[in-house]
Design a protein that fits this description.
Elements (H helix, E strand, L loop, with lengths): L1 H37 L7 H17 L7 H19 L3 E5 L5 H10 L4 E5 L2 H9 L5 E8 L3 E2 L1 H9 L3 E9 L3 E4 L9 E4 L1 H5 L2 H7 L4 E4 L3 H10 L3 E5 L1 H7 L2 E4 L9 E8 L9 E8 L6 H11 L4 E8 L7 E8 L5 H13 L2 E9 L6
Parallel strand pairs: 1-2, 1-3, 7-8, 7-9
Antiparallel strand pairs: 3-4, 3-11, 5-11, 6-9, 6-10, 12-14, 12-15, 13-14
Helix pairs in contact: 1-3, 2-3, 11-12
Function: Catalyzes the Claisen rearrangement of chorismate to prephenate and the decarboxylation/dehydration of prephenate to phenylpyruvate.
Pfam family, one: PDT
Protein name: Bifunctional chorismate mutase/prephenate dehydratase
Length: about 350
């Protein structure tokens, strides 16, 4: 027991040292903010954040043996950076709402709890918030591994001049939530149609006699469950904390490989980090082999394409545009050359942005 007592003393000493260093970091962040403000420099620099994350992950693994989990380290440093940044300026983030949805969760994972968040009713509203500079950033869903692409997000890039400034990939884990503390009390289950579709087998097997009801969002389902102990909601863990609901059953989604990718949008371009993606859209001429000739450019320059999607151009029937994600930054020599060639082989080319790849997804 004496050894336990001494170890706890050592933990107390370390905690005090961590607290001292956090306050030192906060003071430095405030000073940096003052310098940036005087020089009219952007307060938030995502490229610098990426550099910090990569450094601490590398040090944790290579120098300290990786005893502390990498994913937990990312979450901790996200909040440290978010809190320090808020001392310089409160970052304003618009997202597809309402609160406690997966888009809200993605935004929190990217910007931390110290940012100021504005939920929006539609994807278009998120774009408008960024375009009008009412928000510094926006967060919108773009694709799910089961449900596919979010077409409305892609369509917005056809008409908007905002840039892609980041991506977030999160696992979609669904839970049965309720104000009751027993699953036996649940008589109705509410959720968004997509969430219900993704856990249909579990519901049929475990709650075969329960009525399943679609509502406009997982957040609305939680609001109903909060008021009625006989109601259950299918939603995220963030929703459980937000609405103070009990988690009656965890991970009820039918597939374990359920991920959603979100895009961060902004008004400015980002500098290369060395681990980037570039997103573009282009239209080809209505002639045989036009798409082949366009895509051949990337093969020629040894550039890997991670995604390609087609969407109607909305200009005339059977006219399509192509959305492509590729590895590399637009300022890299080979990417720059490829995009220059591509412009000559297409009707139009629009670079949507170059941005760091999602952390821990490389």
């Amino acid at each position: 027991m004496e050894e336990l007592k001494e170890l706890r003393k050592e933990i107390d000493r370390i905690d005090e040292e961590i607290l001292r260093l956090l306050n030192e970091r906060a003071k430095l962040a405030k000073r940096i903010g003052e310098i940036k403000s005087k020089a009219n420099l952007p307060i938030h620099v995502p490229e610098r954040e990426r550099e910090i994350f990569e450094k601490i992950l590398r040090l944790n693994k290579e120098v300290y043996g990786g005893v502390f989990p990498q994913e937990a380290l990312v979450h901790i440093y996200r909040e440290i950076i978010s809190a320090c940044l808020s001392l310089e300026k409160k970052i304003k983030v618009a997202y597809l709402g309402p609160k406690a949805t997966f888009t809200h969760q993605a935004a929190l994972e990217f910007f931390g709890f110290s940012a100021h968040y504005t939920p929006c009713s539609t994807i278009r509203d998120v774009f408008v918030e960024v375009e009008t500079k009412r928000a510094d950033y926006g967060v919108v869903p773009v694709e799910n591994t089961i449900e596919g692409v979010v077409n409305y997000t892609l369509d917005m890039f056809l008409e908007s001049d905002v840039k892609i400034a980041g991506e977030i990939v999160i696992p979609i884990t669904l839970h049965l939530l309720s104000a009751s503390d027993s699953i036996e009390n649940v008589e109705k289950v509410y959720s968004h149609k997509m969430a219900l579709a993704q856990c249909r087998s579990w519901l049929e097997k475990n709650l075969p006699s329960v009525q399943v009801i679609e509502v406009e969002s997982t957040a609305k389902a939680c609001e109903i469950a909060l008021e009625d102990e006989r109601a259950g909601a299918v939603a995220s863990e963030v929703a459980a904390y937000t609405y103070h609901l009990n988690i009656l059953a965890r991970n009820i989604q039918d597939s374990g490989d359920n991920f959603t990718r979100f895009l961060v949008i902004a008004k400015r371009d980002l500098k290369p980090t060395g681990s980037d993606k570039t997103s573009i859209l282009f239209g080809v001429k209505d002639e045989p082999g036009a798409l082949y000739k366009a895509l051949e450019v990337f093969y020629k320059h040894g550039i890997n394409l991670t995604k390609i999607e087609s969407r109607p151009s909305k200009k005339k029937a059977w006219d399509y545009v192509f959305f492509v994600d590729l590895e590399g930054h637009k300022e890299e020599e080979r990417v720059e050359k490829a995009l220059k060639e591509l412009k000559e082989k297409t009707q139009f080319l629009k670079v949507l942005g170059s941005y760091p790849k999602a952390l821990l997804q490389e």
